[in-house]
Structures are given as C-alpha cells and as structure tokens.
Amino acid sequence: MVVNAITKFCKFAVIPLLLGFPIAIIAYRLDIWSMGISFQIIKYTGFISIAVLLLALGLAVFGLVKKQKPVTITGAVVAILLAIPVVGLSMQAAKAKSLPFLHQVTTDTVNLPEFELIVGLRGENSNPLDYDSEKLAPLQQAAYPELQTIHSDLNMIQAFNKAVNVASNLGWEIVAKDYKKGKIEAVDTTALWAFKDDIVIRVQTTDTGSKIDLRSISRIGGSDLGANAARVSKFITDFNAN
Q1: Between the N and C ends of the chain, which has fewer C-beta atoms within 10 Å?
Q2: Is the distance from CB of 232 to CB of 214 less than 8 angstroms?
Q3: Has this prediction a pTM greater than 0.70?
Q4: Does 125 share its domain with 155?
Q5: Quick check: 6 pLDDT over 90?
C-alpha cells in the first residue's frame, strides 16, 4: 500500500514540478503576478523537486531489490525528469555564489556616465542609480577586470556613430542620441524574463582620438548574475573588432 501510494504521488507530482519554472516565467511576462512571486514559485519548485527526486530514487532502488519492474521504471523516470529542474537551479545557485552581488557595472568607476532620458523610463520600483564607488568598484574590478575604457584613434563623431551601430547590432533599443554631449542611451531586453536593462554610452574627445565608456544597470533584481558585465564586455569586443 505504501509503495503504491508513493508511486502514484511521484507520477502526479512530476508534471506540475516540471511546469513550475516555465509557468513562473510566462505569468511574469504576462503581468499576471510580480517577479517576487515567480521567484518564490521557482524556489519552492526547486526544494520540492529535490525531495521528490530523492523519493523517486529510493523508489527505484526498492523496486530493483524487490524485483518490481513497474516500480523501478516509475522511480527511474521520475528521477530523470526531475533532475532537469534540480540541476538547472543548482547551476544557477552555484553561479550566483561565484559572482559578486552587483546589478550594475561601468567602465569608469570614478566618473560614471550619467543617464538622462532613461531616468524617466525606469519607473518608481527600479533599482536606484546611486553608485557607491568605494564598495562596488573593487568588487567589479576583481570579477570583471576586462571592463575598461575603450581608447580609439577615431575622432569623436566617428566613434559616436560606430558606438550607435555596435549597440544597434547587439539588439539594443536606442532611446537617445546626443552628439553634442557625446551620449547614447539604450535599453536591452533580456530574452528569457524580458527584463529591461539600461545602458548609457559616453564618447569623449582625447588627444589621440576618442574614448568610450559604458554603464549598464538592471532595473530590477539585486544580482544580475553577470548579465551587465557580459553585455558591456560584448560591446567592447565588437567595437574593437570592427
């Protein structure tokens, strides 16, 4: 009786647990509920998936010992299926622990490029634009030393136009361009969650040509899991490659 009950439970539990993650994303993107609720669903889906996974493994072992093939198959299949969300969430958790708790990065941690037009687009619940250089700069420089000012032999106008082209090719939505100030503001929407992240690019004249600095910040979330650094790094690579 107990084995049958556990077998039925595992069968019925596996489908909603597998659907927990996609439902959380879809519901958030459709504005059915907040990101906080989605993250709670994902968190508890992960915890319950681990518990049911262990239960299924135990069931499979029991079936092998007792030579009950249907029980063994059920336990093995459920364990394999639930390994998907468990491994995925474990990888995300490991990634989060390996990266600094940042939701913005910049190539100039002393004199940051400033947002203007985007400020009015960010919304009341967005992360603040304040930057504690003493606290955040060392964390960024230790984790992402490649995020440095771009020095180019192009003049300011040439560098400005090139920066616009690179940003556009990366799929960023250009929301403001100011040649006089040498400033470009853009928004990048993440593929999975459709998060809006804001970018400002500053182009300045130098004795040898120009220099380009970037700043990228997430509107929501305490940690970006390296997304902003990856975005800025990709821009730097593409700008220097062309």
Answers
A1: N
A2: yes
A3: yes
A4: yes
A5: no
- First-to-final CA distance of the chain: 69
Mean model confidence pLDDT for the chain? 93
Residue 26 phi, psi dihedral angles, 5° rounding = -60, -45
Residue 25 phi, psi (nearest 5)? -70, -50
Give the model confidence (pLDDT) of 132-161 as tens digits: 999 999 999 999 999 999 999 999 999 999
Residues 110, 219 within the same domain: yes
Q: How far apart are CA 126 and CA 140, in angstroms?
A: 21
Specify the number of domains making up the chain.
2
Q: How far apart are alpha carbons 64 and 217 in whole angstroms? A: 53
> Cβ(140)–Cβ(232) under 8 Å?
no
Residue with tokens 């182009």: 203
